[in-house]
Design a protein that fits this description.
With 176 residues, this protein is mainly alpha-helical. It has helices at residues 8-21, 30-42, 51-58, 69-75, 80-103, 119-128, 133-139, 153-166; strands spanning 144-146, 149-151. It has a two-stranded antiparallel ribbon with strand order 1-2. The longest helix has 24 residues, at 80-103.
């Protein structure tokens, strides 16, 4: 209940902000536009964790993250609800990438391109929205080619990050 809203309306507003940030949409190719839209729709998918992951987190057996829940619980002074929220908030971008890489196989194939896809890049772009500049430089390139399309994952990640930051208002964000 204390999260900012991460619903479809948030994703749609991000797409609108992306269109405002990129002043010459016509200069983008179909793949770049698809990647922008997919990143807007999927960047926060990691906010919804499974019951099994939640139990694993609470038992300090969540292998996907180095942070131990018991330590977060200690820092939050025993407030389990708040500790879970903060734990998931901190790792949700990485969970988004994991979801894209494990649950969405075959969903990012480029038509008429002999099994070429951009799944890895979408996962990294979604993960990047909470990472620092050094992480982005280390993990994303400035030029990739898939079939007839070239794209700049770093540019797409920066547009996503800016659009996500711009979507802050009193309807979506708690007063604090």
């Amino acid at each position: 209940p204390d999260y900012t809203l991460h619903d479809i309306e948030h994703s749609l507003r991000i797409i609108e902000y992306m269109a405002k940030i990129i002043t010459s949409i016509e200069s983008l190719n179909d793949l770049e536009i698809s990647m922008l839209i997919n990143s807007a729709l999927l960047h926060d998918i990691g906010m919804g964790i499974s019951g099994a992951d939640l139990e694993s987190i609470k038992k300090d057996k969540f292998e996907f993250c180095e942070i131990k829940f018991s330590r977060m619980l200690q820092l939050i002074k025993g407030n389990e609800k708040l500790a879970i929220q903060e734990y998931v908030r901190r790792i949700h971008a990485s969970l988004s990438r994991r979801y894209i890489e494990t649950e969405l196989n075959g969903k990012f194939e480029i038509p008429r391109s002999n099994n070429l896809n951009y799944q890895k890049e979408i996962g990294l772009i979604c993960e990047s929205h909470t990472m620092n500049k050094d992480w982005i430089i280390e993990n994303l390139s400035t030029k990739e080619v898939r079939g007839l399309y070239s794209f700049n994952p770093t540019f797409i990640a920066c547009v996503l990050r800016l659009a996500d930051i711009l979507d802050i208002d009193s309807n979506r964000t708690p007063y604090n």
